């Protein structure tokens, strides 16, 4: 039988055809669910974080195979031979998810240990061949989900600690995927998407595939199931939605579909028998807080359970889920299918979700004087009430906005209360990032409202990417306004989509007027180069503060080392530094300028680079195609006197790290004059730019020098 399945999978892999795009309806359905169940279940559940009668505290319990001494591959197979989850009940799981208010289930079809929860044709290390249970868990769960009206999704680990041709166990899990292993993964994914009906999402995890491998896997998934959404941990920005870091809730705007995965306990996702679970009431409030915050910011919340080895759900987790489900039964309207908070200001009392004609105020703490001001809100509130019991709530409108009087004595100590503002005629709020246009205005990275995603080569090199900049112009006078774009060598040749008021156009930044920068590089004094590192680091962020550095003092902390002076390093010469996995170096140079002026610098780096001037981050970019080196051009806004330039260099994939800081480049910029724009006083005009037709919607724009100056004609 397994031979027949192998042939079928091979035929499917041989089929050609372009990758289908996710339908808008399928994407909207996924976004509207808001809340789903994650399940970590497998052989590791049998061990419960214990090996040889000792709790294994190192690492996550679902990764015990990598962290427990003596738990070799053959020994782990012996554990699998005792894995018999006789109390596992797929209908109970589906019903629990439904009663908890969750719209789908996402289960670990295969975790890093390589054990398959289904009858797999390509390995005997699966639920049918390696265990006494001998029932296809995925088949039965997919059927139960269908019976109970919830969607079925799958987690799939790209690394595999059991497959012989895979990379060995590492401490970082961002291992490359050798060709034979890639073929094995594709065969397994083909099975998963061919045997179990519609799969709402495929949640890849870990590994570091090449761009070609990620593209091939994406095309395979969408060819087999066009409406199966792919998580961003497929790597190389090939996901349909971006997955935040584990237990991460962003406090910024994500400009693409996104999901926040969360565990009940940060220490583990799989079952841990000795886990201290604490006060269940606090945990219920903690997870409900996360759900509301994620929904209010436009994301989906994926909350994990780790069943025991016998298949039962931990009572603590089950009870907490059901308690949140009870709250959702009363307040579902305020979560499912809602839009994000339309306001661009934080509220200390809680969060907001919305619809076109309603606002939902999630009261998490009692506001001062029991009063809430919704600044700038315009629209006629026909009625306001508590969602759970329709108790009327008083509101009033003023020039400042709408004031909501929270009922006295409203108890939000355990469960949040939701106040509904019903505004049948619709409403408006102040637009994002208003820029008064009473004099010439320059729009750039410094004053932009940013929309983000995650640029993800692999899990360890993921960083928060900027995908769009936005402003709103408020002209002080009516008439024609002159817009002028300026940019430098970094942006030259790129295409952008520019929204300017009611007009949106695609522009190529090329063939424009070249202008010499108003600077005098001969009068600028460049200090010697200092080096700090190697230090363990990721792509973004820094190991310590880069403001007002003293190179003679330890860094990044008092137990660090002083910066090392390298008199032999010269600007304009490329050097190579020894580097390993997740290595960061910092290069410091003092620049003394006789006046305020701009200076163009060319920076050569490896897998990623950040550029700072006087402690301020000017630029961040990775190396998505894993080239030997990358070159970027950044305009440095020098102040009169001493300036501190710091370039952070990052390495992940290679054994060495190139760098060069070069000022001997043409000190020029480019100017593109755009057609005049008519504006009226008292109206708002949105402005935004982003890359036109980027390879993926998650790509970092990488346009540090682009500016738009708007002035009255």
UniProtKB/TrEMBL annotation:
Hydrolase is among the record's keywords: yes
Gene Ontology biological-process entries: fucose metabolic process; glycoside catabolic process
Glycoside hydrolase family 29 N-terminal domain residues: 24-333
Keyword Hydrolase: yes
GO cellular component, one term: lysosome
Family the entry assigns: Belongs to the glycosyl hydrolase 29 family.
Biological role: Alpha-L-fucosidase is responsible for hydrolyzing the alpha-1,6-linked fucose joined to the reducing-end N-acetylglucosamine of the carbohydrate moieties of glycoproteins.
GO molecular function: alpha-L-fucosidase activity
Protein name: alpha-L-fucosidase
EC numbers: 3.2.1.51
SUPFAM superfamilies, A to Z: (Trans)glycosidases (SSF51445)
Domain of life: Bacteria
Signal peptide: 1-20
Keywords carried by this UniProt record: Glycosidase, Hydrolase, Signal
Pfam families: Alpha_L_fucos
């Amino acid at each position: 039988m397994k031979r027949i399945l192998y042939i079928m999978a091979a035929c499917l892999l041989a089929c050609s055809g372009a990758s289908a795009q996710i339908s808008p309806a399928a994407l909207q359905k996924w976004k509207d669910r808001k809340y789903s169940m994650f399940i970590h279940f497998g052989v590791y559940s049998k061990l419960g974080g214990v090996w040889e009668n000792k709790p294994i505290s190192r690492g996550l319990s679902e990764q015990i195979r990598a962290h427990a001494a003596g738990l070799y591959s053959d020994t782990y197979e012996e554990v699998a031979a005792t894995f018999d989850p006789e109390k596992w009940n797929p209908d109970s799981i589906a019903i629990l998810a439904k009663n908890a208010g969750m719209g789908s289930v996402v289960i670990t079809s295969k975790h890093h240990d390589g054990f398959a929860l289904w009858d797999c044709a390509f390995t005997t290390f699966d639920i049918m061949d390696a265990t006494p249970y001998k029932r296809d868990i995925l088949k039965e769960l997919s059927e139960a989900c269908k019976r109970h009206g919830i969607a079925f999704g799958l987690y799939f680990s790209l690394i595999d600690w059991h497959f012989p041709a895979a990379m060995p166990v590492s401490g970082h899990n961002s291992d490359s995927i050798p060709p034979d292993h890639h073929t094995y993964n594709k065969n397994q994914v083909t099975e998963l998407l061919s045997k179990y009906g519609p799969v709402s999402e495929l949640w890849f995890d870990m590994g570091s595939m090449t761009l070609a491998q990620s593209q091939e896997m994406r095309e395979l998934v969408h060819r087999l199931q066009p409406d199966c959404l792919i998580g961003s941990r497929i790597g190389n920005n090939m996901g349909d939605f971006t997955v935040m870091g584990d237990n991460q809730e962003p406090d910024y705007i994500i400009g693409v579909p996104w999901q926040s995965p969360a565990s009940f306990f940060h220490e583990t996702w799989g079952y841990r028998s000795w886990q201290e679970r604490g006060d269940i009431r606090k945990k219920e409030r903690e997870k409900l807080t996360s759900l509301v915050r994620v929904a209010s910011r436009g994301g989906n919340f994926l909350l994990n359970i780790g069943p025991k080895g016998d298949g039962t759900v931990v009572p603590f987790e089950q009870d907490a889920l059901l308690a949140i489900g009870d709250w959702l039964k009363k307040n579902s309207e305020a979560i499912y299918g809602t839009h994000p908070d339309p306001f661009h200001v934080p509220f200390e009392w809680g969060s907001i979700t919305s619809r076109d004609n309603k606002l939902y105020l999630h009261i998490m703490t009692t506001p001062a004087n029991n009063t809430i001001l919704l600044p700038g809100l315009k629209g006629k509130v026909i009625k306001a009430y508590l969602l759970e019991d329709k108790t009327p709530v008083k509101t009033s409108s003023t020039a400042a906005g709408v004031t909501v009087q929270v009922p006295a004595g409203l108890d939000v100590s355990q469960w949040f209360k939701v106040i509904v503002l019903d505004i049948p005629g619709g409403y408006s709020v102040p637009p994002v990032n208003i820029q008064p246009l009473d004099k010439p205005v320059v729009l750039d990275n410094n004053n932009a409202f940013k929309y983000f995603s995650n640029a993800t080569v692999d899990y360890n090199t993921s960083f928060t990417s900027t995908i769009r900049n936005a402003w709103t112009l408020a002209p002080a006078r009516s008439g024609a306004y002159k817009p002028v774009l300026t940019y430098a060598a970094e942006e030259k040749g790129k295409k952008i989509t520019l929204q300017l008021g009611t007009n949106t156009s695609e522009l190529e930044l090329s063939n424009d007027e070249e202008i010499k920068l108003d600077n005098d590089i001969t009068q600028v004094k460049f200090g010697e180069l200092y080096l700090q590192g190697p230090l363990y680091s990721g792509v973004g962020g820094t190991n310590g503060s880069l403001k007002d550095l003293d190179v003679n003092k330890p860094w990044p902390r008092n137990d660090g080392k002083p910066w090392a002076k390298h008199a032999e390093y010269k600007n304009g010469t490329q050097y190579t530094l020894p580097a390993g996995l997740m290595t960061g170096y910092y290069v410091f140079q003092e620049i003394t300028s006789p006046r305020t002026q701009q200076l163009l610098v060319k920076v050569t780096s490896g897998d990623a680079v950040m550029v700072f001037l006087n402690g301020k981050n000017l630029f961040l970019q990775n190396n998505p195609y894993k080239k030997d080196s990358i070159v970027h051009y950044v305009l440095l806004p020098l102040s009169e006197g001493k300036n501190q330039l710091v370039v952070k260099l990052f390495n992940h994939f290679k054994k060495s790290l190139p760098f060069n800081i070069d000022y001997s480049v043409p000190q020029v910029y480019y100017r593109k004059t755009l057609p005049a724009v008519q504006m009226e006083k008292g109206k708002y005009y949105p402005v935004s730019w982003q890359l036109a037709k980027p390879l993926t919607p998650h790509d970092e724009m990488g346009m540090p020098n682009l500016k738009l100056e708007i002035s009255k004609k």
